[in-house]
Amino acid sequence: MSDIQLLPAVVEFLARPHGHFIEGHYQVGETGASIDIHDPSTGAVISRVAEACEAEVERAVRSARQAFKGAWADVSPYQKDVVLNRLADLIEANTEELAQLETLCSGKSINLSRGLEIAQSVVFLRYFAGWASKITGQTMTPSIPSFAGECYTAFTLREPVGVVAGIVPWNFSVMIGIWKIASALVTGCTIVVKPSEFTPLTLLRIAELATEAGVPAGAFNVVNGRGAVGQRLIAHPQVAKVAFTGSVPTGIDVGKAAMAANLTRATLELGGKNAAALLADVDVDSAVAGIVQTAYVHQGQVCASPERLYVHRSKVDEVSAKLGAALKQLKIGSALDPQAQFGPLANAAHLQKILGFFDRARASNTVVCGARAVERPGYFVEPTVVLANGANDPLLHEETFGPIVCVLPFDDEEQLLALMNDSPYGLTASVWTNDLSKALRLIPRIEAGTVWVNMHTFLDPAVPFGGVKASGVGREFGSAFIEDYTELKSVMIRY
């Protein structure tokens, strides 16, 4: 089957002059500086987006601040719920247009863009919307002694922090963007989003839909550009919070810059070198199918995906052989081809990074399968499995953020725990076993923000998500996000 035909609306959108979304309006940019947007399946330039100047960043933040104090502050909690659900309706109604735009920018399979990126963005947005009328404080009775018959009572309020700078990566720009946009708006904050320079178009379209849904001008702004634009947002004195998703080195820099700017609070959802443990009793066929599904989705460009595979020595040969055989059967093809099972990497720079890992793997490791570029236009590589040369193998410790799984055998559970925890990262992990007792005993000893059993990578809006150690600060989803987007105010009354 060939590539799908693009919708006329998508063709028209690509041809438009793209810039920013500020004060409720689409703006083409003031400086003339622009960034080419490439289709990862072909490498061709499909559109351009303007790079924001200092004045445009200033205008976006000022617009957000005015809406925070005015138009969005005047919207009741119930009505915030209604507006966000209306936006979810519009995203759902425009699924195909948004999915095609996202696939064209990111190289994500059209099936994944439709069924996960856009569909789950709707699910998450509706979940967040429901919190609008459920953000509460507490009442308490102080223990202050009464000297003349007076009484005391106290309560707490949760108040929105203000303007949020949402810095969004290229791998899931819509879904991660929605996490930040919805978290901000539902708590009463306003937001300026900076998408990745590789994937800016879909969030611009969603900003238009947000205005149609009733989000007032200034409450949701988008400014485009490279890292300098994000730095201006972080340093801005009227930005009260930074919500960043991206690599660990960049996240550390973002956290330092936010603290230096104005003790600006920051939520940092960073990378990981996630471990999957296959115990001796594992159902090998089921586990291999699960690893193929979760480690190689979107070509491994998922922060939560497993990259380290620790397999009981009794099963390591079988797992490696079956995993390699399964990967060799995947159909590699264009992201716009619904029949393709494995598409391109997201951009040329990332392709070069992954090719560097391949060079090292072929020089130092046993390659079970893959570790080569695919000779065709675009940014294609083969899904890869390599055997580690021991516990200190760099491929077990450096995040690749790509379709590379490194396998190492273990002999007992104490050794397994030492291997799994021997990492500066702590985002996710998984245990694959038919023995629930073993899994439950291992989970408290695994240093990770999320641990799955017989699954990996799946997220749900009701379950908080975030990392420990170098994998981040703060949590997304559940009710945990509320703490990061609100300030706690204490009130005491004598009467």
Would you spell out the secondary-structure blueprint of this structure?
Blueprint: H1 8-15, E1 20-22, E2 25-27, E3 34-38, E4 45-50, H2 54-69, H3 77-93, H4 95-106, H5 110-129, E5 139-140, E6 152-160, E7 163-167, H6 173-186, E8 190-194, H7 201-213, E9 220-222, H8 227-235, E10 239-245, H9 248-262, E11 265-269, E12 274-278, H10 284-295, E13 306-312, H11 316-328, H12 348-364, E14 366-369, E15 384-387, E16 404-410, H13 413-421, E17 428-432, H14 436-442, E18 450-453, E19 472-473, H15 481-485, E20 486-494
Parallel strand pairs: 7-8, 7-10, 8-9, 10-11, 12-13, 12-17, 13-16, 15-16, 17-18
Antiparallel strand pairs: 1-2, 3-4, 5-6, 6-20, 11-19, 14-15
